[in-house]
Write a structure and sequence with these properties.
Helix content: 40-55%
Largest sheet: 3 strands, parallel
Number of strands: 5
Radius of gyration: 19 Å
Number of helices: 7
Distance between the termini: 55 Å
Order of helices and strands: HEHEHHEHEHEH
Strand content: 5-15%
Shape: globular
Structural class: alpha/beta
Strand order of the largest sheet: 4-3-5
Length: 156
């Protein structure tokens, strides 16, 4: 009987913690997007529908996945939307970006910049500078070190 009460207490505490977390204003939820927001379609109808029309066209989109498992393919339409004289910047990619693959996406070599910084801090700095620049259409950053403060700095 004592063990049963302890389990109920733990479950109650977990539900309370999840409720607080779920209602936190800094947690982005696709279902809470305003319909008037400009969005990029990912080209996957079911996913776009689940995201209320796609991903936001401004700000920071954070993806958690195994590295090198097709995350670029997921954002192919966003990355490849042609912007005259604009760069697509890849910061700290986990592997080599092959020219034939980029060309197959429709990207010209002169539109692509690959940055391989020596530290996470330099990666974040490079991303911030690229996002502040009017020369970049899209910045893709591979990082495990983006905390809340850095995320705000990247939402320029």
């Amino acid at each position: 009987k004592k063990k049963k009460k302890k389990i109920q207490f733990i479950l109650s505490a977990m539900n309370k913690s999840l409720s607080v977390l779920n209602n936190h204003p800094h947690i982005w939820r696709a279902r809470d997007q305003r319909q008037s927001e400009t969005k990029f379609s990912l080209g996957f109808p079911r996913l776009d529908k689940a995201l209320n029309g796609g991903v936001t066209s401004t700000g920071l989109v954070r993806i958690s996945s195994l590295t090198g498992m097709g995350e670029l393919s997921l954002f192919k339409q966003v990355i490849c939307q042609h912007r005259t004289h604009k760069l697509v910047v890849f910061i700290n990619p986990p592997g080599l970006l092959q020219s034939p693959w980029l060309e197959n996406l429709g990207l010209k070599a002169q539109q692509v910049l690959v940055v391989k910084p020596s530290s996470e801090q330099e990666s974040l700095w490079a991303a911030e500078q690229c996002l502040k620049s009017t020369a970049c259409h899209c910045v893709v950053l591979w990082s495990n070190a983006v905390n809340q403060k850095e995320a705000r700095r990247l939402q320029v």
